[in-house]
Amino acid sequence: MKYTKKLNPLQSMVKKPKRLETRLIIWVTGLCVLQALMFGGLVYQITAQSLNDHIGDKALAVATSIAASNNVVQALNNPQKLTAINQEIENLRQLTGADFIVIGDKNAHRVVHPDSNKLGKRMVGGDSQAALQGERYISIAKGSLGESIRGKVPVYDAQGDIIGLVSVGFLVQSIEPLIQERIVEVMIWGVLLVILSIIAAVLIGRRVRNAIFGLQPDEIARLFSEQDAILNTMRSGVIALDPDGRVRKLTQRACEILDKPTACINQDLMLSDLLPEHAEFLLRNQRRKMVGFELFAADKRLVLSRFSLQVQGQADGILLTLRPADELEYLSQQLTKVQAFAELLRVQTHDYSNKLNLIGALIQMGKSDEAIELIGQESQGSQAQIHHLLEHIQDPVLAGLLVGKYHKARELNVTLELNPDSLLGAIARTEMLERVVSILGNLIDNAIDAAIRASNERTPYVRVTVDETSKTLLFDVEDSGFGVGDDHEVIFTPQYSSKAGAEHGIGLYLVKTNLDSCGGSLEIGESDLKGARLSVYIPK
């Protein structure tokens, strides 16, 4: 029998994450309720204090008016008039809305009081002595009718002597209904505010949900954690940048490749802090994609790719991926070159097949001399170049490079000649050999392209000279092109290219970075082929 654990409804409710709209409603409503309670308490205090002050001022004003009345002064001096003044004061009490008006003699005994049974008795509350000493004031005290707000004023006779006091009071319990009326109004507005906050929370929640593609906060957090884990487990380093070069995302692998501490991940960095030699180049022409671009940084050869980040159809920065050019990547590049060379051989095989058919036809026609002459023309230049190359270039990698460039030039109808005075031994250092191959290969490619552009005016021609001294490797590459102009610095910038197409403009930049990495130098001059001569000097 299969057993399935069943969760009770409370556990299911606790485990199930709340939706964004629910959280916003709870948070906003809770905040508004808290604000409403705090605001209500504040309004209650302010209202109560304001009413108390107003009632106290009113009581004091009424008491002052009564104390200045001649009838009150005469009644205090002549007890026979107290009965008449009692009725007058009662009418005034009803008119002003006071809860009591009490007049006392100079001994604080009541001579006027709304309750006739309390006449002649001493005034209670303990707040009458100051008035008998000449002070006007407002007090809160508990008397025979209850706690009240009182205004107390002394009564003076014609000679200026104090002959009694007047006490006008409003009971505290009669003020409470006025305060409660105000609080009810505040509570109504508070409830309306809470309802409005719930509606606003729902609308805000929907807007936020649409902005984050319908994802809930828990899903966003999980997605962020997953993507961060994926990026940090990749063998390639990843650097995401703002358009101005500010680092938006930096992975641990990128820090390892660039020999930077992992603490850099949480720092505010610019691309110039990570790749100072190449930052300016990488931030220009950001829409142009680069794949498999080689450069030297952090004392190592790196393979870098650059992609433009597009958000809603707008450029929002660039993404860089980089990795060390290890053996697997090197073999992959070599395989690509072999494939290109195989394609070149296929084309040449087709060309030679046509020429063999021509030679066969000449022989069948009995024109042997013409066939022999064609064979000699076809093989003389190629064999001489290859024989001279293998005889004078002892390094097999460089020899293979020059053979490949020779065949490429022939396919493009460009004559490529290795100077008969060339002589070069083997290069023992692997990293030096890789840089030399990159430098020489890019220079020859540029020379072939330059010669082709000038082919309408003169025969395309490229001459290569390789030599060495005890301390220096020397390379000269000359072409029959139009030259490089007067501004020699601009040709080494990554944006410069005399050719059309986004794939051009980085060859000479690679030459410069490789020369900088191995401490070499380059001179530009004019060739007797009417084009440019680029001379490279690399210390061994």
Automatic annotation (TrEMBL):
Residues 326-540 form the Histidine kinase domain. Keywords: Cell membrane, Kinase, Membrane, Phosphoprotein, Transferase, Transmembrane, Transmembrane helix. The chain crosses the membrane at residues 24-44, 186-205. It is an enzyme of class 2 (transferase). It holds the Pfam family sCache_3_2. It is found in: Cell membrane. It catalyses: ATP + protein L-histidine = ADP + protein N-phospho-L-histidine. GO terms for biological process: phosphorelay signal transduction system. This is histidine kinase. It is a multi-pass membrane protein. The lineage of its organism: Bacteria, Pseudomonadati, Pseudomonadota, Gammaproteobacteria, Alteromonadales. Its EC number is 2.7.13.3. It comes from Pseudoalteromonas porphyrae.
